[in-house]
Amino acid sequence: xxxxxxxxxxxxxxxxxxxxxxxxxxxxxxxxxxxxxxxxxxxxxxxxxxxxxxxxxxxxxxxxxxxxxxxxxxxxxxxxxxxxxxxxxxxxxxxxxxxxxxxxxxxxxxxxxxxxxxxxxxxxxxxxxxxxxxxxxxxxxxxxxxxxxxxxxxxxxxxxxxxxxxxxxxxxxxxxxxxxxxxxxxxxxxxxxxxxxxxxxxxxxxxxxxxxxxxxxxxxxxxxxxxxxxxxxxxxxxxxxxxxxxxxxxxxxxxxxxxxxxxxxxxxxxxxxxxxxxxxxxxxxxxxxxxxxxxxxxxxxxxxxxxxxxxxxxxxxxxxxxxxxxxxxxxxxxxxxxxxxxxxxxxxxxxxxxxxxxxxxxxxxxxxxxxxxxxxxxxxxxxxxxxxxxxxxxxxxxxxxxxxxxxxxxxxxxxxxxxxxxxxxxxxxxxxxxxxxxxxxxxxxxxxxxxxxxxxxxxxxxxxxx
Length: 466
What we know:
It is a single chain. This protein is an alpha+beta fold. It folds into 3 domains: 21-138, Immunoglobulin-like (Sandwich), CATH 2.60.40; 141-226, Carboxypeptidase-like, regulatory domain (Immunoglobulin-like); 238-463, paralog of FGE (formylglycine-generating enzyme), CATH 3.90.1580. 13% of the residues lie in helices and 31% in strands. It contains 7 helices and 27 strands. It has helices at 2-18, 69-73, 238-242, 291-298, 317-331, 340-347, 364-367, and strands at residues 25-35, 57-65, 76-79, 85-90, 96-102, 107-113, 117-118, 122-124, 131-138, 141-147, 154-157, 160-164, 170-177, 179-187, 190-198, 203-206, 224-226, 247-250, 253-257, 275-279, 282-285, 399-405, 414-415, 426-429, 446-448, 457-458, 462-463. Strands 1-9-2-5-4 form a 5-stranded mixed β-sheet. The longest helix has 17 residues, at 2-18. The two termini are 35 Å apart.
């Protein structure tokens, strides 16, 4: 249930953010909470000092998602009440600030950045010598210009209709976050689909749909032209889609499963004891199963976030068994879910493993969509860096169902383990776009009821022959 709790928190935060004013930095008032320090929780609070008038202080740790360390270093904390700011420093191990100020009820503060301006103001009640947490995020909204010779063409971004190309061959779309997006430009029976990385103002996407010749188009000053490239992940027909399960060969081997040394203090007790596991050769999906692939087999799309190239979600373990049965009948192959051991072996990079904490890197932003960079939504498969085996999104994006029942580990060596013979919950691995970094590690174990359908649960396939 650990990942379900994280989901509920993240969903609540994402709804609260809608009500915030259009500030570049948003502090989420609703996320303010005290950190308990007692023998029951085992959380130790470092001593908190007094202000210059010897009044007791409180500490607030502000976690700031989607912001670099350099930008956080430039932030100033400004207090709107007569509290005294005793300390403000950048957190050493996380994206955020550590603030100490006079402990008083109805304390109001905000933050200021020289380039991004002021955040919203929050009102908090601070008790003496207590520590609190509050969340914030960078709400960087940009505009992009879509230009085409096809006047009247429809423009979609992340599967949302954004308008038509006007008489001046241009459509300007406002309120786009600095992130990767999926753009579709459609005119009659012609369509361009493209993944774009919007990372600055004056971003311009140019495509001619009516003419095969690219005509010169005058760009706005400072504009960056993004010419479309073929989107290899978008098959055209049902047979193409069914045949497009790109499977990667994984040579078998022996590895240590569980809370290995690189996992450090992030590891939970159910990741122990570590134990030696040997797996045989197998093939595993290069990508998570997409919505186009699910619809081609099942005839429907159950997902909350919609888009052909997004991972399918809101599918239960039971639903997936039905999908696999139909897929095997259609293809004559023997697809299945990976065992938990196969999943972890592949996530670690198999016999090419470099011992990373996450799948493919020790820097999660490079390989995963998670709470710090996802905008609390799924993203098209294959956009981040792959791991050592060439597998994408093994950390983050959506949780991935495994075949096994969830149960405790044994310290004994095992060969091709399949988990307990019975149970009440099935294994989920990899974390999701809603989860914090700790949940996206290669050894982290989640679980869910076999009939659970959540918009963070998806899967990838395994088979013994390609």
